[in-house]
Amino acid sequence: MGRKISLPMLILAILGFVYLLAPIVVVVLAGLTAGEFLTFPPKGFSFRWVIAFLQSDSYLSAFFFSFRLALMTMIVSTILGTAAALFLSRSHFFGRNAMRAFFLSPIVLPGVVIGFALFAFYISTGIGLTRTIWGLWIGHIIYSTPYVIGTVGAALASYDVSLDEASRSLGASPWRTFRRVTFPNISQGIQAGSIFAFIVSFGQFEVSLFLSAPNSEPLPIAMYNSLRYKFDPSAAAAGIFAIMLVTASVLLTNRLVNVGKLLDRK
């Protein structure tokens, strides 16, 4: 039987949960206001700003651009992150922990540091990636890949390597062993990492602020620019759709992946 949670800890957990959800509730209610300006509490309820978002070419183009960018980032980050996690878990050499820390460092560093560093690198080297879609894509990949490394690494931590050895001893090639034995056993970690990479890329603001192209703005940058020049609730309405997409991604992760089992390394 599991340990019973004490009442003070339960109250703290509920308060923490409410504190984390409060900004989401504020954004949703602000996007459904009937007023002319972005205020809280809302002055009545209306879908006028939601309809305005659906009829806005700038917001819709930014939303679908963010979706495509996040999808492309998810594919590349999943491949790179899975390969890196396999390399780190199967290799034993001096400095492996330092290399793992280096791969995971984008999670620790603030996004504004990574964005500015890449922006300065593009300018100083003159490689033609400054304010381009490709430069922005690289930034999102760098920032999202560590999440795949972490989840796949957690799956590999409880993986029995003897299964691979048995497959190889029966004559299977390394690729066939990975495809038929390793991949099915770590697929939950890969699925979770890919969805996390998608969510992180879709909502990434700091990196996009430095690297986005003028005519190809992700949704967070479009919302930021809207709030700079006008204070209507259309940005909050755009946030509603972003929250819906992220919530659907989280529910999909919960549906496909047993996170508790994934993190259990016993």
By secondary-structure content and strand pairing, the structural class works out as mainly alpha
* CA-based gyration radius: 22 Å
Total E-strand runs: 0
Identify low-pLDDT runs: 262-266
Average pLDDT score: 83
Apparent shape: globular
Number of helices: 12
- Give the SSE order as H and E letters: HHHHHHHHHHHH
In whole angstroms, the N-to-C terminal distance is 17 Å
The main pleated sheet reads as: none
The residue fraction in helices comes out at over 70%
Q: In what range is the share of β-strand residues? A: under 5%
Write the layout of secondary structure elements.
Elements: H1 7-31, H2 48-54, H3 57-90, H4 96-108, H5 111-125, H6 133-157, H7 162-169, H8 174-202, H9 206-211, H10 219-229, H11 234-256, H12 259-263
Helix pairs in contact: 1-11, 2-11, 3-6, 3-8, 3-10, 4-6, 6-8, 7-8, 8-11, 10-11
Brief overview:
This protein has twelve helices and no strands. It is mainly α and 266 residues long.
Describe the structure.
This protein is 76% helix and 0% strand. The protein has helices at residues 7-31, 48-54, 57-90, 96-108, 111-125, 133-157, 162-169, 174-202, 206-211, 219-229, 234-256, 259-263. The chain starts with 6 loop residues before the first helix and ends with a helix. Mean pLDDT is 83; it is low at 262-266.
List keywords for this structure.
12 helices, mainly alpha, globular, disordered C terminus, single chain, 266 residues
